[in-house]
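no rush on this but wanted to send it before i forget. theres a chain ive been looking at and ive put its sequence and its fold in token form underneath. i want to understand how the tokens follow from the sequence so walk me through it. thanks a lot i owe you, the record is right below:
>
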Amino acid sequence: MHNADKKTAEIERGLESLHRTREQVRHAYADLDPDVAELLREDPDAVINISVSFDGTWHKRGFTSHYGIGV
């Protein structure tokens, strides 16, 4: 397998994982909120508005990173 093929396969695995996670989150929100469940019944590809909070304050002093924590 060539290097480009490995990279493509890695990207595809990442996209599959992202899709599975997205579906799990959508189902979890539908289970919690009847309005979301109705929205997804009407349009399975509907955008669900959720709250997200990020924190990047855990960086060590003197180091910079592009990573953060999302909840």
